[in-house]
Structures
1.
Amino acid sequence: MNHPSYLGVFLTFARNSLIRDMTFRANFLIEAVSSVSWMIMNLGFYTLVYRFTPSIADWDKYEFFVFISTTMFVNSLVQAFFMPNAQELSELVRTGGLDYALLKPIDTQFLVSLQRVNWASLGNFFVALLLLGYAVPKIEGFELSVWHFVLYPVYVLLGVFILYSVMITLAATSIWLGRNQSLYDFWFYITNFSRYPMEIYEGTWGTPLRQLFTFVIPILVVINVPARLLARQLGSEQVFLAGFAVLATILSLLGSRWVFRKALLSYRSASS
Amino acid sequence: MYARAQTWWIILKICLEERLVYRGDFALGTLMRFLPIVTQIFLWTAVFASAGSVSIAGYSLEDIIAYYLLTMLTRAFSSMPGLASGIARQVRDGEIKKFLIQPIDLMSYLLLSRIAHKLVYYLVAAGPFALVYYICRSYFPGWPAPEVFAAFLLSLVLAFMLGFFLEASMGMIAFWFLEVTSLLFVYMLFTFFFSGHMFPLDMLPDFWKGVVDFLPFKFLAYFPAAVFLGKIEGDALVQGLMIQAGWVLFFIVSCRYLMRAGFNRYSGFGG
């Protein structure tokens, strides 16, 4: 059997999406600007908080800015490549459009996960680059090494994969539920936990919560691991977390693939 | 007069029934909306621990958590999901024509359906709100004095009216620009930051505090919550309520004016 060129197909998807985005250029621009301004407000909030405290859970201002840029990298990638597709999936299930995806001679998960690229979301990616360039040199006692250049992007990507797994698992549940309106809300509330340094989850409630979101649903790993690698000295705890992140990514990807295929088996088309 | 009251009553009843269809989903959604509070509690506990002080901009840790919980309540009054975008959609697809033909005033209809929407919301959300507030009761400083509480309730009602007429005015802009989705998004971001939903506005540096005082947004979330917590007292409280009422009046007039001007411009698209 002839296998389609997955890279070629993906590049075509990306190109088509770009053409579509460029048809409504003003809208594209406004979309990019508004997602950037949302992050700038976030930044404003933390700048405000740091007027009152020298650090939050041992993260000083510039270290925390590195944390925020990491959040922006990961989120902009997830929003650009996977978010529009996950939202589309529940729509495909409801209208029966998934039939067409199943008929195509290509892996269904690949097809429904990457069909559409939302280029406007990458606006935050460049803002994050600027912020990183501004914040990193200001971290006290920081020495840039080759390892930073290699490991940081790798771990950002691993984070993206973990979030993708969570997202596609949630989206796959819409096959069982028929419709999943609160999917997006649920996604927002879950990932809300990942946007803070894991050290803030302390105490009777905090520690179990931290363990839950590190070891069961590994969303705390997503941003914390790359941000720590860049902003902190390499210690034994970091090494452990870095190793664990690799394992967590592999398991999440495999787990979400399993859930997706299981869900597909229960798909019973809709309308005509 | 009687006939008109009857029309309004029927509109209200229909809208009530319409809203009650999805009550289960609704209650669950409300409860989930409190989840971000959990991370806020952890974040601010960490901030206070690191800052080593008991008060930030006049707020203790308990005050700040109580503030976030209260802004959830004030936003339940002042936020109007889908109002402006609904008006914009009706203008775009021509549905708004029916208000030009039928003897029903657009604004009264929208207001009534919104009141029905909110009544159902409070009915369903009362449970989750009471539960969360009860769990978090240790963060509250206790019930305020009766006159402060009365002022708090008044400011909530005014916040509802301000939210409604402000957002309806935004929706009327659709008569001039058909596609207003992105404009509304910017407006939403603005209100989120400057209404005090994100943090107590007292934390802002003087310059920005001055800016915020000139804007109507702080009455949508910050003001009622600060009144409840006793951060605004005496003359400042009376003055604040008067300014809030002033903004409500301003937007009642502006949205009427925009509606008239809009109807004159309107050219009836769609079928």
2.
Amino acid sequence: MRKIRTPYLLLLPGFAFLFTFFILPIINLAQTSTQTSIAGGDTGQYEQTLRFANYFDAFIENKEQFGRSFLYATLATVLALAIAYPLAYAIAFKSGKYKNVLLVLVVAPFFTSFLLRTIAWKQILGEEGFVVPTLRTFGIISESTTLTSTSFAVVMGMTYNFLPFMTLPLFASIDRIDPRTLEASGDLYANGITTFRKVTLPLSMPGVVAGTLLTFIPAAGDYVNAAILGSPNTKMLGNVIESRYFKVVDYPTAAALSFTLMAAILILVTLYIRKAGTEELV
Amino acid sequence: MVKASIEARGDLRLTRLTKTYGDFTAVDDLSLTIPKGSFFALLGPSGCGKTTTLRMIAGLEEPTAGSIHLGETDITTTKPYQRPINTVFQNYALFPHLTIFENIAFGLRRRGKSDVKEAVEKVLNLVELPHLAQRKPTQLSGGQQQRIALARAIVNRPALLLLDEPLGALDLKLRRQMQIELKWIQKEVGLTFVHVTHDQEEAMTMADTIAVMNEGQIEQMGSPADLYDNPETAYVANFLGQSNLIKGTISGNDGDSQIVDLYGQKISLPKSRSHAVDNSTYAGIRPEKFRISLLETPVKGNVLSGGKIEDVSYIGVSTQYQVEMPWGQELMVFEQNDDGVAPFKKGDAVNISWEPTFTFGLRGDEDATAGSEVAPEVLDEE
């Protein structure tokens, strides 16, 4: 008897924690999402109804931010992949004895607060930073163009902030590739590009899938980058939810938006894993 | 250009090939011709440069100096994928994400061959694994993976097939079986095989010609029988099988033979098998060439007397003896257990004799232990 009970006892603390801090809030959130304001009541006073139209209203009202969230998250994911893949490849295959040092450097940003690093980007992209004057000198951007408070800045901030989450799974995946399979590919008449397409990339797919998920999911729900580096024109869904909750005290709309965002991410991720997991990736 | 190199055929010619890594010279001014259609083995211990040589032929390493020709075509700097050369890698290096069929078809598809299915099926039949076509490499045993690696290479009908310790990961029984199969397949498909190994028995079983390598250079090259019966250096004598090397002085001539004085006892050595450069020499005799006899038994040929049996190991097919000679050296003797005579006993006083034609002579200034102390069983190190 004791033997059978032990694993459940071990599960208990974790389960209790999840129940209190995840299941209960989710149920509460679901309830809130269908509430309506009390007629003649104060701001922030709601009664429990089953008004599912809240979802529709919230979506219609914020579809622009919805689209923006997924657009920015997609752009940041693609950019992070483009930067992280060569980086992870170089660390795995070309770094020799510096492999561990470079890996530490990849995670080094975590020693500083996420907020601080995002605020630092404001400095980097600001008028006093070196980026804007340099780009202006070379005529890449015009004298009147600024980089802060733009969607460019938001996407850059997101790409930067999520880069380690892309790099680490990619590295783990690429590092596991036996370099002799790459030599074998060359030996069997495949040039560098073909070897990458037919051998390296398929073998690193688990890392690509893990890295893109770890980047895309938090990026789609992110609001810090848009809040610090963006403008009212670059608001993402996260910013809307935040302001509905804390500023407008419109709890039902915020809850409905949260659920819609969760559902959308879940559907996209499921489709993505289906495609990336089963199809012949060549 | 691409076309020309990929169609190249003929003998493989290495000319003054050198590869250095910093201060370390892996391959040192190596020249070698491997005739088309032969089964050639590069034999040597870890770190002798054999794998580096193979990788330069494959195009996976660039020579520091020297050239590689295939027939009339210079392929020294040709990219690996533009060489008509395929490799069976040490740990097979099969593509884990592809089926066995696609693994074998890989090279054919890259060159846009049309009859892929037919060719793959044919080679799968040759290695007797047609039923595994749709499996993934991880679902196969080591021996099966080895055959697939071989099939993946020979399906391309390369001008040259390189085998890098291909049997190293197999157990002994499977290795012996694969040695015979490889030899048979080589005859069957008629390709030039260059086989790198540290296993002298493997090299001798399979190869027409063996080059024994040591410290980046070829120590001696020849047929297995040549190398075994008439080694030119102590290194070859010790690395290929075992040898008894006895210090001596050449004291005179007798027709086609030299008279060699071994600690006061005279023996005869054919001049054609003497590689000494002056009077000092080592007389070499393989352990199985010796005959042991009790003192009263009359014997012919070369005789060394005054031996005492120090150790007897009965190993079924033969008995191995350590015989201590008057000058303190212990000689190794293998006697076949084919005459129904009980083995000699420890402490027996004996004579040792052998046919003079089995003697070989080495330079007297050599290190008699060269090649005997190398640890051959280290894979993956080179």
